[in-house]
Recover the amino acids of this structure.
């Protein structure tokens, strides 16, 4: 076997599993549509209001249900069959995308209507995120989970690379409504993929019976497990302040570089998506998450995000976003894999729901806050605040790793 073949085999190991391969293809189509809608919604709001605060509110509403009820969504994932949940969430998201397209087509769209649709999509995501995260292991098993999570991140960001490019062309040729209709259609790809899967090849996680105190038990389990707790706290900080690119990048393009068309915004997202695909593939090949690796990736993410924030030209900002995207997705993939590999099966849905709260659910706090910072200063400062706190998180993670090593050595010395 040649070196290239060996590397490819290891990097794409999870794709040898037929069910995951079907899931991967369906998700790639669907995620591209999701990014088309994200670009269209952001551009639509800028046309309606031109306000970074309004854009931040819309993004916040989309994730508010996860922040408030995230643990409940994880508990539902622990109780029910994951595939059945995903059928429901795909149908719900498709209906909402169609409704938003109709509002735009009939000239009835308002900022309030966008807010309502964003909040309803947040309810769908409340159940979708933990079920989707746990479903990956059901398809591939424990041995391939780190590889599958990384490849899942690759497809999410391949969608970011594909979707904005198509969205920019669609907005120019057919208007924003076309993006919403296209997104609605892409959910059919996931539904078809789920239907084509072989149930006999699933490796179902243990489900839990309904009883009192299960939410508190999940929270206590994470709080009393240092590795899980430290990873979720790190994701929460980075998720709150750094992962607000749907707020920062359109304003960054529009205000800082005076871009007045969706194509420039699409190129920024595409550059970050390209980097994220590269980062995801590198982590998929490595497939060995450690706290030290997580800290190093946070450091790289913060550094290149700082370079993006202070790039003097749009071209240099696009170039800086490539490694920013690579480190950002490598950080999140490593955090995700660490949690899945180090949590009990019966707790997996609740642990991953807390990951969802930390990553997605913090957006209702971070998006308006970063939007406010931008409004009171400029887009560069909004990006830099996220970068600085990401670097601080890296330092904190390294401190916990060193403390853990020192504690273990002390115990060994006593022994």
């Amino acid at each position: 076997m040649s070196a290239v073949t060996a590397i490819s085999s290891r990097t794409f190991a999870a794709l040898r599993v037929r069910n995951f391969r079907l899931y991967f293809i369906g998700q790639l189509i669907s995620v591209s549509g999701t990014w088309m809608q994200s670009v269209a919604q952001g551009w639509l709001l800028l046309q309606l209001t031109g306000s970074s605060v309004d854009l931040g509110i819309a993004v916040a509403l989309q994730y508010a249900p996860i922040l408030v009820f995230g643990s409940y969504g994880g508990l539902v994932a622990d109780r029910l069959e994951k595939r059945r949940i995903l059928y429901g969430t795909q149908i719900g998201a498709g209906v909402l995308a169609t409704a938003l397209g109709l509002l735009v087509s009939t000239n009835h769209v308002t900022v309030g209507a966008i807010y309502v649709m964003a909040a309803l999509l947040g309810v769908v995501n409340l159940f979708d995120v933990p079920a989707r995260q746990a479903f990956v292991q059901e398809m591939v098993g424990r041995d391939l989970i780190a590889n599958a999570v990384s490849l899942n991140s690759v497809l999410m960001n391949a969608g970011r690379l594909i979707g904005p490019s198509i969205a920019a062309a669609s907005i120019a040729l057919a208007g924003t409504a076309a993006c919403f209709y296209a997104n609605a259609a892409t959910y059919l790809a996931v539904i078809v993929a789920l239907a084509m899967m072989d149930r006999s090849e699933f490796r179902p996680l243990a489900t839990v019976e309904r009883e009192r105190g299960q939410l508190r038990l999940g929270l206590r389990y994470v709080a009393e497990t240092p590795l899980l707790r430290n990873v979720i706290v790190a994701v929460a900080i980075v998720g709150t302040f750094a992962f607000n690119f749907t707020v920062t990048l359109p304003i960054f393009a529009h205000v800082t570089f005076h871009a007045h068309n969706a194509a420039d915004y699409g190129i920024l997202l595409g550059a970050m998506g390209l980097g994220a695909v590269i980062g995801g593939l590198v982590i998929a090949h490595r497939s060995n998450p450690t706290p030290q690796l997580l800290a190093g990736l946070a450091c790289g993410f913060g550094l290149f995000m700082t370079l993006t924030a202070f790039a003097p030209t749009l071209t240099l900002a696009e170039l800086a976003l490539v490694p920013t995207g690579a480190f950002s997705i490598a950080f999140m993939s490593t955090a995700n894999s660490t949690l899945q590999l180090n949590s009990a099966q019966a707790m997996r849905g609740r642990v991953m729901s807390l990951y969802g709260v930390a990553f997605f659910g913090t957006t209702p706090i971070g998006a308006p806050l970063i939007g406010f910072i931008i409004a009171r200063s400029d887009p560069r400062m909004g990006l830099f605040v996220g970068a600085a706190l990401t670097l601080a998180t890296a330092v904190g993670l390294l401190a916990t790793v060193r403390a853990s090593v020192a504690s273990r050595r002390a115990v060994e010395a006593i022994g």
Observations:
- Residues 11 and 286 are 8 Å apart (CA to CA).
- The domain at 11-197+214-414 is CATH 1.20.1250.20 (Growth Hormone; Chain: A;).
